Please model this.
Amino acid sequence: MSWLDAPASATQITHGRRFWLYAVAALVLAFLIVPTLIVVPMSFSGAQYLEFPPRQWSLRWYSNFFASASWVQAAATSFKAATLTALVATPLGTMAAYGLAASRFRAARAVHVLLIMPMIVPVILIAVAVFYVYVKAKLNNSLAGLVLAHAMLAVPLVVIVVTSALKTFDANQEMVARSLGASRPRAFILVTLPQIRFAVVSAALLSFLTSFDEVILALFVSGGANSTLTRNMFMALRDQIDPTIAAISTMMIVVTSALFALTQVLGRARNA
Amino acid sequence: MATIAHPVISAASGTNARGLRRDQLRERIALLSLCAPALLLVLVTMLLPIAWLFSLSFTADDGSLSLVHYRRMLEQPSYASIFVMTFKVSLITTGICVAFGYPLAYVLSQLPRRAANLCLIAVMLPFWTSLLVRTYAWLVLLQRQGLINSWGIRLGLWDEPLALVNNLSGTLVGMVHIMLPFLVLPLLGTMRSIDHDYIKAAANLGASPTRAFWSVFFPLSLPGLFAGALIVFIICLGFYVTPAVLGGGKVIMVSNQIASDIELFFNWGAASSLGVLLLALTLAFLYIASRLTRLEHLVGEGSR
Model:
């Protein structure tokens, strides 16, 4: 009996009879991966126009990127903004998640919803509103303004990740530390924080990625010397297709995959 | 701050208990105040600016309170067509995601765990590559001299380059690609929790494989399908980047109109009224979704 005639599920349907289903699933999977994977080899093409597979290989688009002052500056801005966003959003979000979990107020639910709001409201609306206020406050095109806005977008992620970690943490341990004389902050730092540290680090990485990948707010409130990489890429995409973008995309894929893989590894370590 | 909290309170009585209770309340308020910095950030960079925008949408050009911007939306057919386009694109995207995502989730739910997790990496891959990178990739793949056209012609599938991008179809491809994981993940969760004994029982009672699927498995998977489809639809309503890059100016959704109202015309009244309407729609659908499914399903996976 071949594999095709073997029963595939409890309904006794054979693999052969539902082979089409596997084909559809494989095609959908391919649809999901192909665009990401095709950019990588194309970025190493030596041709003026994008072609696949490339006829000759070269690093010209990478050297193009590093030779361009505006691209390098934009990359530096993106890294700075993303790092600062993580540094602002992680402590604020962690404090809020801890406060919500420990205070056990009924009103905490309303506060929770307020803190999650930036995830729900369409980003374009936030961007336009923030732009309006920043013009008045003279914060437009400033790194500080961009970081504040990105941190606001990242706070919900931090709150969600840390809250779910606090749910599995036994709060009595902190009570024990406090009954032995530790103050609330000391008990938090010595007992609670070490146990939720993976969630906190994951939250910081997610905040970094949120800022690093963000397009719409960056489009409205960043600019000039503080343009982000995504803003410049978006502008370039509207004009023409410059293969330099393939090189930038490849580098972004490497950075974001590395960070995301790190969060997954941390998640596994936490569950183990 | 050195008070020991609740365990003692139940045992104590009289003035002592009152004092302890007061201290405990004070401490809980102090704890809740830990939310203050984050709340302040959200308040200053989101809620107040949006409230400001809200008031702009009810202000006429001469500064008086009026509904002129909303009236214009009703009167000008171009606004109606923007909302029609937004709903059309969101509905079609949701439909395609259901049609493609359901079979994928179904196969994944029946694979052995290890193989399924390997495939899940492919599902998650779009999640952790930048939205802009993926949009760019589709632009490269779908353009006139792009990969799909040149391979299609070389293989003799069609003769002339097809217009695959800078129109509705390009936008849909890009949006389906972004939204599929949002459908597959909640659906897969629901499918995995379905007890296989039900399907065995159906087969045992003489149901054909097709019958067992449609009358037992499919109804049980509907909650996950609903949750996924609703979140896809709601997120689609606010899309900006994909229609802007892949739509070639032909796919103008609400977000794109808001952006061009600001960037090109500095028309704050029009932009703010559109924005208020978009927010109202999003919240309305979210409310409907929360009635139909558990909201934690919707915001569970890291959405961006």
About this structure: Confidence is low (pLDDT under 50) at residues 1-5, 299-304 of chain B. Chain B touches chain A through 97 residues (CB under 8 Å). The domain at 72-299 of chain B is CATH 1.10.3720.10 (MetI-like fold). Chain B is about 75% helix and 0% strand.
